[in-house]
Each structure stands twice: as structure tokens, then as C-alpha cells.
């Protein structure tokens, strides 16, 4: 039995362009040196065919040394315990319907829904319009005023804070809506290098 994995939004900006986020993974994972089983939250298939899982308690599983060799299981058959933080969060977030011993658990992971404020807000990710007082946001394509921001020591012009428009760019598989940067004239990319396009 596999479980659904969330996008690896906690994975650093060092995600290489040929790394692939995993959507499914094993139910339990650990390394040979770990004292307990863990539940995977997200997974990445590295360019060199190496798989790394981030587990719900924050650790990573997957390595090259013998002590760090990854073990996976559908059910825990040995006498090692299961990490309570991982188990509770995995079940509470919906990876499974019932918790240990049939208990109902609930956990709210960081949201993967579009952000409350457009990621282009208060940035220079805009294309100015004639007149110099308004601009088209590159992140959501809505038109909003531009203002001077930052005070006397870090002054800059930026588009005002605004909710995301209907044409908000599709999320990066690794970083969602967190790190947009200007890639070319009128286009955005994620800071990790992946292109961001309107869905």
C-alpha cells in the first residue's frame, strides 16, 4: 500500500531542475541507524536516481552510507516503535482515515492553497503601464497602482499589496508560490529555475 505525498515545499532552493517530486510513497520509512519508523510527508527523486523522503517530524530519510540505507515497509513487523509525531500528523492530515488503534486524529499541515496575498505584491515583479502610476502584476496579471516603498534608506518602487488575480501563475512543484523571480521580460520563474506559467 502506498500513501499520497505532499509537494516538498520544505525542500531548499537547491532543488535541481532535473529532480522530480514524488506523489506517492511507502507507508513507513527509516534508515538502518534510526531507532524508530517514520511516516513520509514528501519525496524527491534526485537526478542520480536516489530517493529522499522528508518525514512528518522534519527529518530526511535516504542516504548513501550503509548506516543510512533506506528501509521501507507497508506494516511494522519488527519491535521498533513508530514516531508518534509522524504517525499522528500523517493520519491527521489525511494520509489514512484512522489513527493508531482506530482513533480519529486531525492535523492541519501548511496550506498548499493559493496565498492570501499575491506573491507579486510589494515587489518589482510588474510591467509598468503608460502614465507611471499603475502596472500589470507579472504574478497574476491584474493591474494595480505602484508606489514608493522601503523608506529613505531602502527606497524602491513596487506594486501595492493585492489579493491574487484569477490568472495567478501555476505553482512550482517544489516551492509552490513562494519564490517567484523575473526570468525574462514579462515572464516569471521560480528561484530554483523552473518556469512559472498561468494555468
List its traits.
199 residues; mainly beta; four-stranded antiparallel sheet
Describe the structure.
With 199 residues, the chain is mainly beta. Helices cover 5% and strands 30% of the residues. It has one helix at 84-92, and strands at 2-4, 20-22, 24-26, 28-31, 40-45, 51-55, 60-61, 70-73, 126-128, 134-137, 143-149, 156-159, 180-184, 187-190, 195-196. The strands form five sheets. Strands 2-5-6-7 form a four-stranded antiparallel beta sheet, with no helix packed on it. It has a four-stranded antiparallel beta sheet with strand order 9-10-11-12, with no helix packed on it. It is elongated and about 70 Å long.
Order of strands, widest sheet: 2-5-6-7
**Tally of helical runs:** 1
Helix/strand order: EEEEEEEEHEEEEEEE
Q: Bin the helical content.
A: under 10%
Q: How would you sum up the global shape?
A: elongated
Beginning-to-end CA distance, first to last residue: 32 Å
User: Strand tally, please?
Assistant: 15
Q: What's the Cα radius of gyration?
A: 21 Å
- Structural class of the helices, strands and pairings? mainly beta
Largest sheet: number of strands, sense, barrel closure: 4 strands, antiparallel
Briefly characterize the structure.
This protein has 199 residues and is mostly beta strands. It has one helix at residues 84-92, and strands spanning 2-4, 20-22, 24-26, 28-31, 40-45, 51-55, 60-61, 70-73, 126-128, 134-137, 143-149, 156-159, 180-184, 187-190, 195-196.
List strands and helices in order, with pairings.
Layout: E1 2-4, E2 20-22, E3 24-26, E4 28-31, E5 40-45, E6 51-55, E7 60-61, E8 70-73, H1 84-92, E9 126-128, E10 134-137, E11 143-149, E12 156-159, E13 180-184, E14 187-190, E15 195-196
Antiparallel strand pairs: 1-3, 2-5, 4-8, 5-6, 6-7, 9-10, 10-11, 11-12, 13-14, 14-15
